[in-house]
Specification:
Blueprint: H1 2-28, H2 33-50, H3 52-62, H4 66-97, E1 107-111, E2 115-116, E3 119-120, H5 122-137, E4 142-146, H6 157-167, E5 175-178, H7 184-197, E6 204-209, H8 213-222, E7 227-232, H9 239-256
Parallel strand pairs: 1-4, 1-6, 4-5, 6-7
Antiparallel strand pairs: 2-3
């Protein structure tokens, strides 16, 4: 009985994760590698633990022949390696989330995100609110808002961000726009050029979502840029989707650069 209860509990946990991965698809139409793979794996594990006796029987039958042993062993090694890599990447991501600047002699670089009908999306607004809070408390700090214009955006992400910060009371003189970038690498590279041209502090603090900070730090280090980080709040039910997506993005960049 204790084994059965524990299997049901594990099944319920993975079913809950399945719901979290599916929510962004249904509520806001976000579909990416993070929630597709996360939902598939969570559903598989939820069913496997719920019908654990059947699962054990299937594994036992497979183990009776050489081909089955190879298949089960390969699957086991893959899952262990994947879990280990996921844990390592998650630790690195958490460590990179908030490495705040030691003093106000810094230039914030706010990384762009989706703009909808000329207004910042929820995720972008959270990043901007975080930047606004820091700029309000540190009046000597300046900010580079970085992001180009997508095909479905009526203004650049940089312009949208500047307008938002100005509307909240940040002086235009403290805001510098980088509106040509289409990737995080370009965000950092182009922003660095603007910082140099305008004699701003080269002590750079990246403002983005927490899950994104480690990969942004990787890009920065490759360009020889040492950075600090301040993270915006990410809506809780979006975290699993973007967290898992980030695993694959980090792995891809680590392998292929």
């Amino acid at each position: 009985m204790p084994v059965k209860i524990s299997m049901i509990v594990l099944s319920a946990i993975f079913f809950g994760l399945f719901i979290l991965f599916v929510m962004p698809m249904i509520l806001v139409g976000i579909v990416n590698a993070g929630n597709v793979i996360g939902a598939a794996v969570s559903a598989f594990l939820a069913v496997s633990f719920f019908f654990h006796e059947k699962s054990v029987h299937i594994l036992s039958e497979l183990w009776k022949n050489t081909g089955g042993k190879i298949l089960v062993s390969a699957a086991g090694i893959f899952f262990i390696a994947f879990a280990a890599a996921a844990v390592i990447m998650s630790v690195l991501m958490v460590r990179a989330m908030n490495d705040c600047p030691k003093n106000s002699n810094t230039t914030l670089v706010v990384l762009g995100c989706k703009v909808k009908n000329g207004a910042p999306s929820l995720m972008l607004r959270r990043r901007l609110d975080t930047a606004f809070e820091y700029l309000s408390q540190n009046e000597s700090a300046n900010v580079v808002v970085s992001g180009g214009q997508g095909d479905d955006e009526i203004i650049s992400e940089a312009q949208c961000m500047k307008d938002y910060l100005v509307s909240k009371g940040i002086s235009e003189n403290r805001i510098f726009m980088e509106d040509k970038s289409v990737s995080t690498q370009q965000n950092l590279s182009y922003s660095r050029e603007i910082i140099g041209k305008n004699n701003l502090s080269d002590n750079i603090t990246i403002v983005t979502d927490g899950f994104h900070q480690y990969r942004a730090e990787m890009f920065a280090k490759k360009q020889g840029i040492e950075t600090y980080s301040i993270s915006g709040y990410t809506t809780w039910w979006l975290v699993p989707t973007y967290w898992v997506r980030e695993w694959f993005a980090i792995a891809y960049y680590s392998i292929f650069g």
